[in-house]
Amino acid sequence: MSHRILVTDDIDREGVALLRAVPAFEVDELATLPPAELLERIDQYDAIIGRSATRITEPLLRRATRLKVVGRAGVGVDNIAMDVATELGIAVINAPAGNTVAVAELFFGGVISLLRHLTRADSSMHAGRWERSELLGTELRGKTLGIVGLGRIGGEVSHRAHAFGMEVHAYDPYVSEERFAALRVRGAPTLDALLAVAQVLTVHVPLTDETTGMIGTRALAHLRGGAVVVNMARGGIVDDDALRAALDTGHVAGAVLDVYLREPLVGDHPFRGHANVVLTPHIGASSAEAQHNVAVDACEAVRDALLHGDLSRTLNGALAGEDAVTLAPALLLARRAAAVARALLAERGATAIESVTLKTGDDLTASAGALMAAAAAGTLEGVVESDRLNLINARALATARGLVLAHGAGGFAPHSRAVEVRLVAGAQSMRVGGVAALDMPPRLTRIGDFHVDVAPRGTLLVLTNHDVPGVIGRVGTALAEAGVNIAEYHQARLAAGGDALAVVTIDGVPPAHVRGTLTALRDVRSATVVKFGGDA
Length: 536
Ligand code: NAD
Fold this sequence. Notes:
Layout: E1 3-7, H1 13-20, E2 25-29, H2 35-41, E3 47-50, H3 58-63, E4 69-72, H4 82-88, E5 91-94, H5 100-115, H6 118-126, E6 144-148, H7 152-163, E7 167-171, H8 177-182, E8 186-187, H9 191-197, E9 200-203, H10 217-222, E10 227-231, H11 240-249, E11 252-257, E12 277-279, H12 288-308, H13 324-347, E13 355-360, H14 368-380, H15 394-400, E14 404-408, E15 418-425, E16 428-435, E17 443-447, E18 450-454, E19 459-466, H16 471-481, E20 486-493, E21 499-506, H17 514-519, E22 524-531
Parallel strand pairs: 1-2, 1-3, 3-4, 4-5, 6-7, 6-9, 7-8, 9-10, 10-11, 11-12, 13-14
Antiparallel strand pairs: 13-15, 15-16, 16-17, 17-18, 19-21, 19-22, 20-21
Nicotinamide-adenine-dinucleotide (NAD) is lined by residues 75-76, 96, 99-100, 103, 148-154, 171-175, 204-208, 210-211, 232-234, 258-259, 282, 284-285.
């Protein structure tokens, strides 16, 4: 199947070349398009790759009926309507690692510029002057660096700070003590504790509800007097007005800013012309190496998502960070177990599913999120528009329909790769489960109270009958007369002469009348036909 990809925002050539090398891809490379023009064209594309200049808005995504992947050559995705992409099952992929060093190096460039008055020295020299006495600076050695956010960039900054002889402290409640220790960074228990010691304060956190305005009037008041504030993360993390006020009183000695609340910075911004502020126009990632790295990373990830369904790099997918190959059998099992449970409930007239409970063996517990998405997808199959139902949007679609998704305790043997899905619809419930061993296709091993053993593939027929002689023969004959070839047949019962259940997998799609043919047979009480849909 061929895919059409729009590459925009002047992505590095090597990334584009990587896409053009795939025969199944048709690649259009266009300069940043005005929003109206992009809106006109977007429905022709399976993927779009750009940088921050192209805004991926809700109206754009809703218009993009073919779109499967949005690739961002860079880290920030605040230009992408992420919730809408998730709702629509569109994968959003970024390239978070490629520009880390570029930002970390700029950090030192900016801070040293400020502390050694490089920008003033340079403009005064170019203006024909020789002014040494006004350019007395301060050193980094022996100063305390306070890093808020010890992620990729915070970590790289800490390495380089040690080389300058700085003492490094950081506040990041979401990283482990091991990371602090490995980076030789002293952990601050609270933001205020960091503010109390930092002489250079720098933020390297994402812009979230929690970090918006994090360095505002209150925080700046707690900051050690005479400190320098750096924001190379996102505008709005440091509050502009509060920073300006603290600079004016001299409580904050200087600032280095690369990012702003509204970009580009136009007109008379309060920081323009301020002697103690170094301003750069969001160039943290603007190194040739970084642009190359992020373009190649983003294009590779989009290529793999389109060609191989690899969603391990998506930001909004249930598979983010998962090894898609190892998990594939379990995902297939969860999705198909849910589809079987739903079909069996529907056979009994219970169609309005209220809850989906997933149980997993302990070897799969860490992947419960992805497996839950697969179970939700199986529950919704055939109920929602199928080409838009995938592991990215399944949980959101299920929750939006009022389904309660829960993960229950397993109760399986240790090191088990068992999966069980239980659906509840009104007074009725149905559990279907199986095992997804690593080295073989998954097997269904339980339907309701019955132990079975079949592969959930092709089309599955589930029959309930009285445990009396002759039923298997009659079913076999009826299927043969209907031209249906049986792949596997598993007969199960709870007690001799009581209720029995047969699971039959057949090759291909059975004729439409097969269910009626089977239920008309003597001693067969019900027949449920499950045609398995989309891959997990
Ligand atoms: P990252 O995800 O690797 O690290 C972010 C860190 O922030 C994580 O360790 C996380 O635990 C921590 N964090 C999150 N919320 C926090 C909170 N409330 N308090 C304390 N810590 C918190 O991200 P990164 O790649 O290091 O990027 C950091 C920032 O730099 C992002 O905002 C990114 O958009 C920005 N960035 C800017 C440029 C630029 O051109 N100026 C380029 C690249 C990245």
